[in-house]
Design brief:
Strand content: 5-15%
CATH architecture of the largest domain: Orthogonal Bundle
Number of domains: 4
Largest sheet: 4 strands, mixed
Number of helices: 15
Order of helices and strands: HHEHHEHHHEEHHHEHHEEEHHH
Strand order of the largest sheet: 6-5-8-7
CATH superfamily of the largest domain: Isoleucyl-tRNA Synthetase, Domain 1
Radius of gyration: 27 Å
CATH topology of the largest domain: Isoleucyl-tRNA Synthetase, Domain 1
Oligomer: single chain
Number of strands: 8
Structural class: alpha/beta
């Protein structure tokens, strides 16, 4: 192809050689293999029809899978469950856009980031800046897997799981709280940046949402494929980042404690600050509504007495008052039995893996499953031990 391009495009030597080469950069990707790592072959009957995958999961999910799995120097195993996972990712984005529409959030009319006063909005603008930087760096290095990883975690973790939850209107005393105007503007701008950044990987759903989110009074002047690459022209606000990350970590710790101790999802638990760091006192005082909505924990002043589960976050210690919420003795008994069962299975699996005969003679998939089961049981035993320790 290179020689023919030089010969035919060079037009008999009238054009410089450098202008007649048909490409400037050549990218070689890995081989797409079957799920077990073997080479696809019609004779083996292990080929995969991409059109069948598209019919089942969508072209966007398959495209994203191929980009996410394309790591330099490594072949790609055709894992259908991963394709299904990226279909769920597309559904997550679609639901986020529906939430935006239902709350009066539309597309943005600015490439630059809007002005923001609220910490949560300054934080998400900084996350956009950080994500664009990761994408640009990965693209320059031809790390398409790195690009896919960066945009995936930003959309799923930062935007959908945290930002939308933090700005979501709450129901207090039976009345819906309206989302503030600033958050609507910022959320619309961030969603536009997501659609532009995700478009090379998922062109169909992003183009659809691009037009679905347009303001009727100000329709889009162009299709998404013609949109400029994000240029936020903003800085990462470190103080806002620390504040929001403090809140999300505390909410995560409380949610983990609730799940480990079988606390009913509807139960509102009094939250007492036992030991606070330098800034934790101020932060917990201004984050009470968010903790009540996201973690079902009610910040309570005054001295604390009684049974509790303790959580530690950012160097501060908090107590979740459990009197009247769960039977502590029964819960200790349940967790202790579960620890014994998980430990027994972990040790049995460790014995099999330490047996050289098993590792050498068993099928590779059996050994791999034993290792995965051992890691799972070891993690379960540690998690349950931490839950028991919370109860004191």
């Amino acid at each position: 192809m290179a020689m023919q391009g030089i010969h035919f495009m060079g037009e008999g030597g009238r054009r410089p050689l450098k202008d007649s080469v048909p490409w400037k950069t050549l990218y070689l990707h890995g081989l797409v293999r079957a799920a077990d790592g073997s080479k696809m072959s019609k004779s083996k009957g292990n080929t995969v029809d991409p059109l069948g995958l598209i019919d089942q999961y969508g072209a966007d999910a398959l495209r994203f899978f191929m980009a996410a799995m394309e790591s330099q120097g490594r072949d790609i195993k055709m894992d259908e469950s991963r394709v299904a996972g990226y279909r769920n990712f597309a559904t997550k984005l679609w639901n986020a856009a529906r939430f935006a529409q239902s709350n009066g959030i539309g597309g943005s009319h600015s490439i630059s980031a809007p002005k923001a006063e609220l910490a949560v909005n300054r934080w998400i603008i900084g996350e956009v800046v950080e994500t664009v930087g990761k994408l640009n760096k990965a693209f320059a290095e031809f790390r398409f897997d790195g690009m896919a990883d960066a945009i995936y975690h930003f959309v799923w973790d930062q935007f959908c799981d945290w930002y939308l939850e933090l700005i979501k209107p709450a129901f207090i005393d039976g009345e819906k709280q309206e989302m503030d105007a600033e958050s609507k503007i910022v959320a619309g701008w961030v969603l536009d940046q997501i659609l532009v950044m995700l478009h090379p990987f998922m062109p169909f759903i992003t183009e659809e949402l691009w037009h679905a989110l347009e303001d009727a009074a100000h329709p889009r002047k162009y299709d998404l494929i013609h949109a400029k690459w994000p240029e936020p022209k903003a800085e990462i606000d470190q103080e806002a980042k620390r504040e929001v990350e403090w809140l999300t970590k505390l909410v995560g710790e409380i949610r983990t404690a609730r799940a480990e101790l079988n606390i009913p999802p509807s139960a509102q638990i009094p939250l007492h600050a036992v030991e606070l760091g330098p800034d934790a006192g101020l932060r917990i005082s201004i984050s009470g509504k968010s903790l009540a909505r996201l973690a079902r924990a009610i910040v309570t002043d005054g001295n604390f007495e009684g049974s509790a589960a303790y959580v530690v976050s950012e160097g501060a210690t908090y107590a979740l008052a459990l009197d009247g919420i769960i039977d502590l003795d029964a819960e200790r008994t349940r967790i202790t039995k579960a620890i014994d069962a998980a430990t027994k299975e972990r040790d049995a699996l460790a014995g099999r893996l330490n047996n050289a005969a098993f590792v050498e003679k068993a099928k590779p998939e059996a050994v791999e499953k034993a290792r995965a089961d051992h890691a799972e049981k070891a993690a379960e035993a540690e998690r349950l031990a931490a839950a028991l320790a919370r109860l004191g």
